[in-house]
Amino acid sequence: MNDVKMETAMNPNKALWEKGDFTRIARTMRKSGEALANSFGIAKGLKVLDLGCGDGTTALPSAALGADVLGVDIARNLVEAGNRRAREQGLANCRFQEGDASDLHALTDQSFDLVVSIFGAMFAPKPYDVAKEMVRVTRPGGRIVMGNWIPNDPTLIAQVLKVSAAYTPPPPEGFVSPMTWGVEDEVIARFAGAGVAKDQIAFARETFTFDYPAPPSDIVRDFRHYYGPTMNAFAAADKTGRAETLQAELEALFDSHNTSPSKEATCIPATFLRVTVART
Ligand SMILES: C[S@@+](CC[C@H](N)C(=O)[O-])C[C@H]1O[C@@H](n2cnc3c(N)ncnc32)[C@H](O)[C@@H]1O
To answer: What is the reported pTM?
Structure first.
């Protein structure tokens, strides 16, 4: 077994995200990714770390605004896709490398002005280690901005998880749901563990829109075949002969959230928790 295969076999978090092809989902996220980057207050030369960056939904527009961006992601295929997209867009100030948000040993202390993680670091196990690592690599006076999905929220992603969970066996004991990053008290406790006081953390509820010129059923198909967590739900549903029921339930869900006037297009707003930490 070569090193990469052995590491993947040993790290289920990495295997989950390398299993599919998140770029298929990310293409529905470009407009909101760009809008988010515009909200980061980027000045030319700002040193930005984008953690759990995927193929660069926020990293590339941040670089286009003049930041010096490093994208870090656990999935090798997404790091390759990010570097390819940066090359195609002529962004020499944006590079991507593999890394785990819960152990950023390759990155030095206090080396970034802004650490961003949009629906990224929330998926890393060991959330207390994640908070410590984000704080460690941010310079004093710098900021951390996270976008986290909210558990039990009525909008799309929490509902996709709720539907999927009904088809999937319960998680192993001790499993910490990524969605707990969407609970303010949890976020405060995790950053407190990294030495951050409560009054240095601000919360806001914002909207992220999944936007694509294809009907919702096509997007559901992409989730089914390319999004690791949903692929697992379908694999479990398949074993009990319920894959098509899951597909129908998800299609009904996506349809009911679609605000596009055309049935041939998808425009689905979803609420997330924006967390901003001021590093002193
Ligand atoms: C929902 S995607 C979001 C990607 C990107 N931020 C975006 O908005 O398009 C979650 C990303 O987190 C990455 N990820 C999951 N666990 C990680 C970890 N432990 N360390 C770094 N990245 C991780 C996945 O590989 C995936 O690219």
So the answer is: 0.95
The pLDDT tens digits of the residues spanning 247-259 come to 999 999 999 999 9
Beta bridge partners of 73: 98
Spacing, Cα 276 to ligand 1 middle (Å): 18
Ligand 1 atom closest to the CA of 102, numbered from 1? 19
Neighbouring residues of 48: CB distance < 8 A, sequence distance ≥ 6: 40, 42, 59, 62, 67, 68, 69, 70, 112, 113, 114, 115, 116
Q: How far is the CA of 169 from the centre of ligand 1 (A)?
A: 23
Cβ of 77 less than 6 Å from ligand 1: no
The DSSP line for 187-207 is HHHHHHTTT--GGGEEEEEEE
Read off φ and ψ for residue 98, nearest 5 degrees. Answer: -75, 145
Asked if residue 266 lies in contact with residue 214, where contact means CB atoms within 8 angstroms, the answer is yes
Mean pLDDT, range 75-97, rounded to an integer: 98
Planar angle of CA 267, 271, 272, nearest 5 degrees: 125
Does 59 sit in the ligand 1 pocket, CB within 6 Å? no
Instruction: Give me 109's structure tokens.
Output: 């202390």
User: So what's the pLDDT on residue 3?
Assistant: 46
